[in-house]
Amino acid sequence: MPRPTCSRCQRPLGHCLCPLIPNLESRTRVLILQHPSEVGHALNTARLAALGLRNAELRVGERFDDLPQLLAQPDYRACLLFPGDEAVALTGYAPKEKPLLLVVPDGTWRKARKLLHLNPLLAALPRVSLGAVAPSRYRLRKAPEEGALSTIEAIVAALDVLEAPQGFAALLRPFDALIEGQIAAMGEEVFIRNHQR
């Protein structure tokens, strides 16, 4: 029989993260497009990000037929948070500058690229990237390359740059607790053997 789960954070009731999830305001609107393969993942950080930010929305799918409507928000400038040669490093907002609608694909690199391929409108958006970032706190996954972050870490890093001096580190509290809980569940010895570099 499946364990009862929290309907909000979708964690087992004994490990509910809701008390740690903040309720943060941001000028930036965050639209997270999640590949369906990520939904059931135990470390679903995109959901935590969407729950902790008032001005965020999480959509799940491979093809987003309503993308034109989602992107056509007159109060925002839409851009895609995705690395690449044409990506421009994010900087803080200038006074009176229109805030961004930051579109964030969520999935493995392969799945994120597939989302771009299946949604040409996404691929056509101006791209932005993070500058130098702190190493990932995601100690359970080996990053495919230096500077790779989980979705929630990338969103926090982007908002910290865009909206400085306001900080968004509180968004990482449930993420840190999630990682610690997973490590505790597997046992320190297994964690060290499989995940320490």
TrEMBL record:
Keywords: S-adenosyl-L-methionine, Transferase, tRNA processing. Residues 2-187 form the DTW domain. GO terms for molecular function: tRNA-uridine aminocarboxypropyltransferase activity. This is tRNA-uridine aminocarboxypropyltransferase. Its EC number is 2.5.1.25. The keyword tRNA processing applies. Pfam families: DTW. Belongs to the TDD superfamily. DTWD2 family. SMART domains: DTW (SM01144). GO terms for biological process: tRNA processing. It is an enzyme of class 2 (transferase). The keyword Cytoplasm does not apply.
